[in-house]
Q: What sequence folds into this?
């Protein structure tokens, strides 16, 4: 099928959605309207006709779910019922987190995902739209629930998580549809994670590669080997040192060990490997070149690290597609992550572009 250029894609949306609200993608502050009608595809939000032409978008193909947080003193024993100190449900999922980060950084962002016909699905759509994300390619499936997780936070700091894959795993039918593949091919960059079936990621990565679109795969999510077929169609592999260790079966405690593990990734076909090292910063390894190191940008306070990794990867993707140098991409991502950890929750912690740019000159 012939791929559409980004301009053609956006023009098509404007023609077919004349009755829907007109919203400027570059201004997530104003994107607070929810879709008015539940359907298989959610209504699109069109570009303001007076706005400047948009660049090729960031397209995130991935997971979206509702995270139910409960704070407890301890885990219940078998057959026991206990009371939680507090509880709340927030939109999440690595795919949704990264898409909202792109939107909050004022870059045109599309999300391709699946939700159920339930309250959790509406929660996710509202969060995506509120973050400036275009939801044309979010499909509602009626047979399975929206993906969700129960996160049990114990007073001593230990976390226990139960995940229900729901639509993230079972909602893809025969795979990505023609419309999904067209928007992937028309992207400036594609961002994937491992909370949806590997087959969907392979399909998206192959479509992007066929159109010359770079692909970043965040290795976070499924604790299982990454198919070699997927790695061969990925341009940048983003992971922390634990994920790197699981992928390669090698130790990653020192920089030398990390370098050797990354070399194994290069052998699998990945040209660039981005390693997130938490408090030690990050390193970008490009095959045949010297690694580029980036230290952390210290936060004034740390209230939560839930969305820090997703923020870093998505911010790196935005800087990359905007044409910044690799060192600048790392610095931009580090600044975004520094702001992220100063707010509780994943999606609520995604920083605005102005805040990131304001922070950079001071560090």
A:
């Amino acid at each position: 099928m012939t791929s559409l250029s980004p301009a053609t894609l956006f023009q098509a949306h404007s023609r077919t959605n004349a009755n829907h609200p007109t919203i400027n993608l570059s201004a997530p502050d104003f994107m607070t309207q929810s879709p008015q009608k539940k359907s298989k595809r959610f209504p699109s939000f069109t570009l303001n006709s007076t706005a400047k032409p948009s660049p090729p978008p960031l397209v995130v193909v991935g997971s979206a779910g509702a995270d139910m947080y409960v704070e407890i003193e301890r885990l219940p024993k078998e057959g026991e019922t206990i009371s939680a100190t507090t509880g709340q449900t927030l939109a999440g999922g690595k795919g949704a987190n990264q898409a909202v980060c792109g939107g909050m950084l004022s870059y045109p962002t599309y999300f391709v995902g699946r939700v159920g016909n339930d309250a959790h699905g509406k929660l996710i759509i509202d969060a995506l739209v509120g973050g400036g994300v275009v939801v044309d390619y979010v499909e509602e499936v009626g047979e399975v629930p929206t993906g969700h997780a129960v996160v049990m936070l114990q007073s001593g700091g230990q976390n226990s998580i139960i995940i229900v894959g729901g639509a993230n795993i079972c909602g893809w039918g025969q795979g990505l549809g023609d419309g999904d593949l067209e928007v992937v091919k028309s992207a400036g960059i594609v961002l994937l994670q491992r909370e949806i079936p590997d087959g969907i990621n392979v399909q998206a990565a192959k479509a992007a590669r066929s159109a010359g679109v770079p692909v970043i795969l965040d290795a976070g999510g499924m604790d299982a080997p990454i198919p070699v077929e997927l790695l061969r169609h990925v341009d940048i592999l983003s992971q922390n040192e634990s994920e790197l260790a699981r992928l390669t079966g090698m130790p990653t405690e020192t920089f030398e060990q990390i370098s050797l593990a990354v070399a194994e990734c290069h052998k699998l076909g990945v040209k660039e490997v981005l390693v997130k090292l938490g408090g030690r910063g990050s390193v970008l390894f490009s095959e045949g070149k010297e690694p580029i190191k980036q230290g952390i940008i210290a936060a004034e306070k740390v209230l939560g690290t839930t969305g820090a990794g997703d923020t870093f990867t998505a911010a790196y993707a935005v800087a990359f597609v905007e044409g910044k140098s690799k060192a600048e991409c790392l610095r931009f991502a580090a600044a975004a992550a520094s702001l992220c950890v100063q707010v509780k929750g994943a999606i609520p912690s995604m920083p605005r572009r102005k805040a990131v740019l304001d922070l950079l000159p001071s560090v």
